Amino acid sequence: MKAFHVIDADGHVIEPLTIYPEYVDPKWRGRVPTARPYKMLNVGRPLGMPDATEEVPRPMENSGTLPGGAYDPHVRIKDMDKEGVDVAVCFPSLATSLCCLEDVELEAAMLTAYNRWMADHCAPYPARLKGVLMTTMRDMTLAVREIRRCAEEPWVVGICVSGHMDDRNLDHPAFYPLWAEAQAQGLPILVHAGTARPPYPLGTHELSENLFLLHSMQHPLEQQRAVASLIGGGVLDRFPEVRFGFLESGCGWVPWFMERLDERFEKLRHHVPLCKKSPREHMMGPQCFFACDPDESSVDHFMKVVGEDRLIYASDYPHWDAKFPDTVRMITERPTLTDAQKAKVLGLNAKQLFTRLA
């Protein structure tokens, strides 16, 4: 594995609730909710999970079921060494759902608190621990202000967004200032949905609160929604220097969906007048990157149809369904990939997405 420089394009922290009263601006301290995670987010519980008042272990809360690196950067580094990861790009686990707060300014303040905590979390290992900044998607003035505040901090390598926000898809003109600022800062946009929590993914209320259905379907559905709206709505054409990463959904859906979008583009082009290039050109071009599951059988098909320059490796560490500590090995031991292809998937492509790691 040491033959490859490995960048984990999508790992996670499990951010403690204590970060909010500790890191939030003092004027908001009295308004920060203090409760168990899902109660704090005013959603009671994520659908398909036990009620938050029950003393039932849940993967998102029970630290005993998770590697210690979920919370402790010193433990994480040891786990990265065990797995063979050189650089980890860390995403939140709960902060994506702060959008359910009624007060958008409080939401923005709590996301700023998260970013301040991430700066401290990554600081002991600045060359190996990186993160994506969080910002509100409901007020572009506040969003741009937060991006500018911390864009040059050494831990920041991208901006995390949801696949939609409230009733707006990602091609809505309201988001143009966010894409423009990402382009100005040279930061990629990382589309990362959640499961059964705000902003509620497609199908949330039609899947019988069944976690098997919710967790199987919602991530890929949200990524398809994001890709289609960003391409069809002309965002990639309008902001040609912004790079987009589509994460947490595997890569098997990408070749099929690219071909489907291409056919609809040819037959329904008048419905997407802002789209100047075909979906295939966009998805195979330098703006789009897709994360694979390390043991995914579709990797070979993706490379054949989409190309070897668009695929990135992600561990999903330390979540309950991650394959720690074997994810890097699953890539390096693939007999169908050449060493050059493995090097691209494990790190070289990620450097094209996260240019601050180049």
Q: CATH homologous superfamily?
A: Metal-dependent hydrolases
Report the CATH architecture: Alpha-Beta Barrel
CATH topology: TIM Barrel
Characterize the biggest β-sheet: 8 strands, parallel
What would you report as the Rg, rounded to the nearest angstrom? Answer: 19 Å
Regions with little confidence, pLDDT below 50 for 5+ residues: 51-64
Amino-to-carboxy terminus distance: 19 Å
Helical segment tally?
Answer: 13
Strand order of the largest sheet: 1-2-3-4-7-8-9-10
Descriptive overview:
By secondary structure, the protein is α/β, with parallel strands linked by helices. It has one domain (7-357): Metal-dependent hydrolases (TIM Barrel), CATH 3.20.20.140. 37% of the residues lie in helices and 11% in strands. Strands 1-2-3-4-7-8-9-10 form an eight-stranded parallel beta sheet. Helix 4 links the parallel strand 2 and strand 3 (129-133). Helix 7 (211-232) crosses helix 9 (253-267).
